[in-house]
Structures are given as structure tokens and as C-alpha cells.
Amino acid sequence: MWHITKREIYDNLNSLRFALTTVLLLALMVTNAVKHLREHPKRVQRYQDAVTESSDRLTAHADGSLYKLAQYGPGNFYKKPSPLHFCANGGESILPDTITVREPPVFATDAENNVILQGVWSLSYPDANLQNKNVGPNVSQVDWAFIIGYILSLIALWFTFDAFSGEREQGTLRLMLANSIPRHTVLIGKFLGALFSISIPFALAVLVNLLLISTANTVHLTAEAWGRLGIIFCLALLYTSLFVALGLLVSARVQQSAVSLMILLLTWVTFVVFMPSTLASIASSFSPATSFDEFWKQRNPVKEDLWDKYDEWLWSSKLDDKTLRGKSEFYTENAERDERWHEERSKYRSSQVYRARAITGISPATLLQHLIEGFAGTGFERHLQFVENTQRYARQLREFVADTDRADPESLHILGVREGTSKKPISPESVPRFEDTLNLSRDFNTAAMELLLLTLFVLVLLSGAYLAFVRVEV
């Protein structure tokens, strides 16, 4: 087996296709690195400016009073740009990168426009329904997902279309099988030889790409980022193995190399080019016919009128405990209902995206796109993590306000109402800050099914190639 593998590698290293593959991959990876070095600093600067503005707003609220912080909230939340954006664009240009904090609504004013009733802040989630745009590979971006999904898969077929048919035409396959060599040994030797031959120029191109990016002062890759890059490289080898197995399968069943190449090209166009977009169009037709408003009415048929429920206290000028608590409960329930509506709408849109991803998962190219996006920290799953980070921080901030107010013995402990909240000043440094982080263990759990499906594709094609080769008559 090792002898056959070395012979395949040696033959490929001395071929024109190996030289062309090396030049092509190097050119694409250098282009990818240059583009990332030009665009990433701009993304980071926009993010830092937005975070600074939001932080200043939070500090201003905290400097005012605890009531002002509880009423106006922390300011908007911004998604941190991934340093591995060059691996997968993931539709980042069309995915929302901001979750807004809705200003407290003014319910009523007096004749002199003085505010009588004013609520508290709530989260407003962006629309995550990307329809067809988020389920297929983005061919307009020269990122790793495009290079691996399209170019590397085509190169794998180029290296294997004549693996058996070419030797059959030259008569060398008969001589090889005349020896006492098991056919599975020949198959695995050719498989490993082709995979190693493709991995050499790809690894070289990746090293040049990462050398350009890591040595630049504008991009900082942490230890976790390097680990994610290693995972993405292994995904590339697994995906390449799929098309190497496909090439061996067709080459074992076809007598002539030209016919094998034609079949493989048609198969590649079908599974890599046409299938993602076609399945995405089919997936969009399965979107529920009912709008979210109709869905919300079905889910919540009874709409409680908070105005009638708290009318007794809302318009009262008394400052007794019962009146203040009535106003506080009105503000809180109104904000919770509004936030729950936005959250359910976000989940409703997300379910449509998941439905589309399940349908397009038949395509290996789409599976690869989703996997690289997940480990690169881009794409739809990254958007959902950003939303979860925001929700977690919102709960943390509200708990901080409640605990700070509870620590003041002079406060009435009625949040949302100026007269019932602590009057003591708070230090802006003590207010918790929002951190948009990634969770590698969650990424693994999310990608487990798609990773298993991609591995299953490889095993099925390898088994098919073996069954086809054992039946070959030479």
C-alpha cells in the first residue's frame, strides 16, 4: 500500500496538473489574504467606534442615577467582527450586526409637555430571515469556503479521473493486478496518494496565506483562533476526501478517461454549483404561508389590556406604595411583552432558516459552507450566539440594578419609578460591561450533525469505489 501511495505521489509531483494546482491555490490564497488585510481593520474600527459610543452612553446613564440606568438601559449592542472572516464570509454583509435597545416609550404628557408616564427600555431583535441568501455558498467572495468548496473539489476530480481508467488504457492496471496484491490495498494506496498530492499544494498555499495575515499588525490571531483554523483545515481534507472517493468510483466504472472526466464534471456541477441554489429555491417555497402577526395571534389569542389592568394607579398623583408598585408593574409588564414579541419573531424567522438549511444539507458544498462558518465565527450560527450573549447581558444588567437598589436601605425598592428607586449615585466602573464571546464547545455541538453527514458521504463513496473496483475486469 505504501509503495503504491509513494508511486502515486511521485507521478503527481512530476505532472503539469500539480504545478498548475500549486500556482492556482497560491494565487487565490494570496488574494484572500490581501483582501482580508485591507477590509478587516475597517470592520474593527467601525466596531470599536460603535462600542465606544455605546459605552459612553452607559457611563452617562450610570453617572446620573440608578433610576436613569434602569430606565434607559445600556445602549445598543454590536457584534464583534471575527478575525477569521477570511475563512468564510458567511453572508456577514447581509446579516444584522446590531441589536438595538428601544428607548423607554412616553405614554402620556401634561399640557406643558412634561412627561407623566414613561416606560423602561427593552431589546429589539433584528430580522434574521435571510431567505435564500444564507443557505448556499457565496461565490462572490474569495474566501476559504469558496476555495475549498469549489476549487479544491474540482482539483480532487482532476487528480483522480484517470486513476483506474487511465491505467486500464495503458495496460498497467492488468500488470499491477497480476501480482498478489489485494484490490483494497490498491484502492487505498491510490486514495492516499491522490489525497496527499492535493494536500501538499493546499497546505503550502494555506501557510503563505496565514503567514501574510499573522505577520500583519492589523490582525491578531489568538490561540483559540489557531485551533479553529486547524479544525477548518481538517474539514478541508475531509471534504477533499469525498471528491477523491467520487473520482475513484467513476474512474473504476468507466473504461475511458475522457468519459470519466465528463461524468465527473457533470456530477461536480450538479452537486456543487446547481444543487445549493436549486435546493435553496425549493426551501424558500416551504416557508410558512402565515405571517408572523397571524402566528402571534394564534399563539396568544388572549391579549391582556395592561391599561385597563393598571388604570387605577397610572393616572394617580399619589406617591403611596400601592400606586408606585402599580406603575412599576405596568412598565415592567409592558416592556416584557414587547421584548417577548420581538424574541418570538426572531425565533420564528430562525425556524425558517433552519428549515432551509436542512433541505440544502443534501449538498456537500452547503454542508462545508455551514461547517466553516460555524468554526470561523461567522454566518447564521454566529448571529444566534450574538443574540444569546445580548440576552444574557440584559438579564445580568437588570439583576445588577435590582441588587444595587436592594442594598440601599432608604430605597422603597420599586424599580422603574423614580420615587421608588435608590437615589444614591453609582460608580460607572461597577456596572457590568457587555462582552460578545464565542463558545467552541457549542460550535462543536451545533456542527455535529452536519459533520457526521459529511463523514457519511465520504464513507459511502469510498465503499462504492471499493465495490466498483473489485468488480472491474482487466
Quick rundown:
With 474 residues, this protein is mostly helical. It has 16 helices and five strands.
What keywords describe this structure?
474 residues; mainly alpha; three-stranded antiparallel β-sheet; two-stranded antiparallel ribbon; 5 strands; 4% strand; elongated
Could you characterize the architecture of this molecule?
By secondary structure, this protein is mainly α. The chain has one domain (2-470). The chain contains 16 helices and five strands. It has helices at 2-13, 16-64, 66-72, 144-160, 165-170, 172-178, 183-214, 223-253, 257-285, 292-299, 306-309, 311-314, 321-360, 364-376, 379-406, 440-470, and strands spanning 77-78, 98-102, 106-109, 115-118, 122-124. The strands form two sheets. Strands 1-2-5 form a three-stranded antiparallel β-sheet, with helices on both faces. Strand 3 and strand 4 form a beta hairpin. Helix 2 packs antiparallel against helix 4, helix 4 (144-160) runs antiparallel to helix 7 and helix 4 packs antiparallel against helix 9. The longest helix has 49 residues, at 16-64. It is elongated, with a radius of gyration of 30 Å.
